[in-house]
Amino acid sequence: MNRKTTDVTRAKNGRPVHHWRRDIVELAALFTAVAVADVVANLVGHGPDGPALLTLSAAALAATACFHTWWSRRHGHAPPVSDTGDTSARPGSAREQAGPSALPEEAARPSTLWRMRTTVKDEPGALAALCTALAGQRVDILTLQTHPLGTDTVDEFLLRAPRDLACAEITRAVAGAGGSGTWMERADAHDLVDAPTRVLGLATRTALDAAELPLALRQLLGRCTIRSLPATAHGDSRGADRVPVEGVLEETVLRLRAPEGGVITVERPYLPFTPTEFARARALVELDARLGPRVPCGQDVLTLPEGNDITVRRADVGDLQAAKEMHERCSSRTLGMRYHGPVGDADRYLKHLLSPRFGRTLAVRTPSGRIVGLGHLLWDGDETEVALLVEDRWQRRGIGGELLRRLVAMAREAGCESVYAVTQASNTGMVAAMRGLELPLDYQIEEGTLVITARLQSSVVRT
To answer: Chain-wide mean pLDDT for the chain?
Structure first.
């Protein structure tokens, strides 16, 4: 090991680094100063007033030193002194050392975001004990929401924990601090938005588009299954006639009156709903009911390969008649591949498909206003289905692929993890359109029915 490496090692360990050349220079300077002082003392001391001048000079130097010490202590200008006597400990050196390398080691460690919910007793010190236990595991609390339940309180945290800290260790520490019924799942950067801002954003999306209500409820309440039951389900115990206007909260199930008279059922089997969550969901449904039916305006004009212009825009129940007319122009084979049942029943599905409560629909229109293609994105519980229908004369022109790409983009924007299409194994057009998405696909075939699932993003990890 060379001398330079040794000096660097000593400096890193806090030991002063000495050089023999510097020692020789300092000794030479000391001897020179002594010689100069001796000469000055001889010249002054042998003069007529020599002793008096030396005495006055010593007194002046002492007074100056005392004044400087007093001034430095009073105004805080004294330079820092290193305990080791190292003269390099100056303000300039401290500024040079500040920067990313001076950050605590803990802040630079890789971390993981978690959402955690636990129940504690509603008593003084319960939350403090919980926070202390999390701090003992080097877990940082980013946000906190409380849901009062009378004698207990449900606390919902957004945590940042070291990546090497297992979920079981966190729950064990929480249980030791008095937490019960603890539930955790992975979070992402979107959860960093505070709760009021997130709720306002969901309300805005719902106000602009009636089809956003199921998605807004899902994002508001976490991973849950949402179903819309029509108002005609009188024989069902879950029908609208059995649900009061203010809704029903039953542990892991919420039932709310839908604006059109049906029932919206929200189920979350792994975690009971709190009264606070029930009130938020009910307020969102009431907002949707007050605003009434609505679909965002706007359309896109597309030019087909042969030069024809078509428009793509959102559709709703107001387009029911035009959609039925397209059915009349479609062949029995095309309708059979789309609806997988008797062709005469095709019109019965349209009102359900065009309702914003059950999903989103895109309609393709010609310059004359005729609908020649429909694409549906349907909320099927906690899954999402895509379906296409293109009039025979307009097939094989890229319309189905364009509709499918737009529907998948909507699903991804809504946070869906996957979409699936149900068709027949002989429907090569639908298979080609799904393959054109260039996404991971899963195929399942049963009795001639083909289900193709496209994965849009990785699943959320729940522990």
So the answer is: 77
Contact between 375 and 312 under an 8 Å Cβ cutoff? The reply is: no
| Top-confidence residue, 114 or 269 | 114
Cα 288 to Cα 96: distance, rounded to the nearest angstrom: 59
List pLDDT tens digits, range 368-418. 889 999 999 988 766 789 999 999 999 888 899 999 999 998 888 877 888
The answer to whether residue 147 scores a pLDDT higher than 60 is: yes
Return the half-sphere exposure (C-beta side, CA atoms, 13 A cut-off) of residue 104. 3
Q: What confidence tier does 333 reach under pLDDT thresholds 50, 70, 90?
A: confident
Residue matched to tokens 């959860």: 191
Q: Which CATH class is domain 299-455?
A: alpha beta
pLDDT of residue 352: 82
- Across the beta sheet with 225-229, the strand order is 225-229, 263-267, 253-257, 248-250
Please tell me what DSSP assigns to residue 148: E
Return d(Cα 351, Cα 372) in angstroms, integer.
17
Distance (Å, whole) CA 43 – CA 258: 109
Place of tokens 């049906």: 262
Is the distance from CB of 362 to CB of 375 less than 8 angstroms? yes
Neighbouring-strand partners of residue 383: 380
Cβ-contact 384, 413 below 8 angstroms: no
pLDDT value of position 231: 64
Domain chopping of the chain, boundaries: 1-63, 110-192, 195-291, 299-455
Is residue 298 a contact partner of residue 313, using CB atoms and an 8 Å limit?
Answer: yes
Give the fold, CATH level 3, of 110-192: Alpha-Beta Plaits (3.30.70)
pTM of the full predicted structure?
Answer: 0.54
Tell me the DSSP string of 317-370: GGGHHHHHHHHHHS-HHHHHHHHSS-GGGHHHHHHHHH-TTSEEEEEEE-TTS-
Q: What is the pLDDT of residues 81-132, one digit of tens each?
A: 434 344 444 444 433 433 444 445 555 578 889 888 898 898 898 889 999 9
pLDDT higher at 175 or 24: 175
Taking Cα atoms as reference points, which of 321, 409, 413, 403 lies closest to residue 362? 403
Q: Following DSSP, what letter does each residue of 166-231 receive, concatenated?
A: -HHHHHHHHHHTT-EEEEEEE--GGGGS-HHHHHHHHHHHHHH-GGGHHHHHHHHH-S-EEEEE-T
User: Are the folds of 110-192 and 299-455 the same?
Assistant: no
Least Cα distance to 249 among 273, 270, 232 occurs for 273
> Please, are residues 354 and 316 in contact by the beta-carbon 8 Å criterion?
yes
